[in-house]
Specification:
Helices cover 35% and strands 13% of the residues. It has 355 residues and is an alpha/beta fold.
């Protein structure tokens, strides 16, 4: 039986949607509605209780996300509280609100990294994707302010059919802006993303090419590169290493294969602004709510998470695949396509023996 129970599992990343408020209108947002007010987001006291519970699970990276997390008035106090609890923290922002003063406050908050979203190498495409004119210019300005303040910057780019031809340009832009890492998030159709035309979704062959590009760029070692929501990287990367075992930079590709592909509910958890717990931000299957139960208990006892950790439940090509314990296919993408998270990942081009 291919099963990883709660024992031996380590939470690596917790993404907290600290607020649903946002100043942009991104076409791919995981939410269908952008809140204008605080609504039912966790209070400062409730957020501290969440941090306390996360600290019981070790030292996972606590990511302040959103919405736009900088619209939450107590983000500095909560970042400081998490740090005092021994949790490494990160900030995921669209970057458009950051000026010199705010950049200094962010740097002083001690975030391990500040991830800024840039989804194209030019303003026209980025602004169209983010739904607000001037977003690209503001985000680039924010990155400059962050670097001047001494913050470590990572660039996050959502990759879809409309920008996959810009990979080289996005890579050059990340280096030019002084980012230490470029993380490519393969579009998962959820929330507003479900309303995108099918032509905006990457085809399986395009995903294969993209992951091969990631391997080559990783081997170069000019900047840290990671493909997210692309568990097939484990299969493509293993194949690349078989063909290039002694190539310069092969060790960097090998290092990228450590761990597992889809980490939803296995190494990653997502907590919404109202305290609802999901295996990841793109898989809308509730595991409980931190207002009613401590996150540590949900992590250990949720039936949904227990099922996600049992790889023998995977169906179709994913269930037959020899890579199911290292790749596992994207459970969120399978759910979006079929309504069943156990189904085969429709992004995968691989047909396992006997499939």
């Amino acid at each position: 039986m291919t099963d990883v129970g709660s024992s031996g599992l380590h939470l690596r990343l917790l993404f907290w949607e600290s607020t649903a408020r946002c100043n942009l209108r991104c076409v791919h947002c995981r939410r269908l509605v952008i809140d204008e007010g605080a609504g039912d987001e966790l209070s400062t006291h409730e957020a501290r209780r969440l941090i306390d519970s996360v600290a019981e699970l070790g030292r996972p990276i606590f990511v302040f996300s959103g919405g736009e997390p900088l619209l939450r008035e107590d983000w500095e106090a909560l970042a400081g509280y998490a740090r005092r609890k021994g949790l490494p923290t990160a900030l995921a922002t669209n970057g458009t609100l950051i000026d010199a003063d705010l950049a200094g406050r962010i740097a002083a908050a001690g975030f391990h990294r500040v991830a800024v979203s840039l989804d194209a190498a030019d303003a026209e495409r980025h602004d169209a994707f983010r739904g607000v004119g001037g977003a690209f210019k503001a985000a680039v300005g924010g990155i400059g302010a962050l670097r001047k303040a001494g913050a470590t910057v990572q660039i996050n780019s959502t990759i879809y059919a409309g920008n996959v031809d810009q990979l080289d340009e996005i890579h050059r832009m990340a280096r030019r802006l002084g980012a230490v890492a470029l993380h490519l998030f393969i579009l998962v159709p959820v929330g507003c993303g479900l309303q995108l035309a099918e032509r905006e979704q990457l085809k399986p062959a395009q995903c294969e090419d993209l992951l091969g590009w990631v391997c080559r760029r990783q081997a170069e070692g000019t900047i840290e590169i990671k493909a997210t929501c692309a568990p097939e990287y484990h299969r493509v990367g293993s194949r690349w290493l078989n063909e290039n075992a002694h190539a310069p930079g092969a060790e960097r590709v090998r290092a990228g294969l450590r761990g597992r592909g889809c980490l939803a509910g296995i190494g990653v958890i997502f907590v919404s602004h109202s305290g609802e717990v999901f295996p990841c931000g793109y898989l809308p299957v509730s595991c409980g709510n931190v207002r009613r139960r401590a996150l540590a208990e949900i992590w250990e006892e949720s039936p949904v998470l227990a099922e996600l950790r049992n790889f023998d439940l995977l169906a179709g090509n994913c269930g037959r695949c020899e890579y199911k314990s290292t790749c596992g296919g994207c459970r969120a993408r399978a759910f979006a396509a079929t309504g069943e998270w156990t189904a085969a990942d429709p992004m995968c081009a691989y047909h396992p023996p006997g499939g």
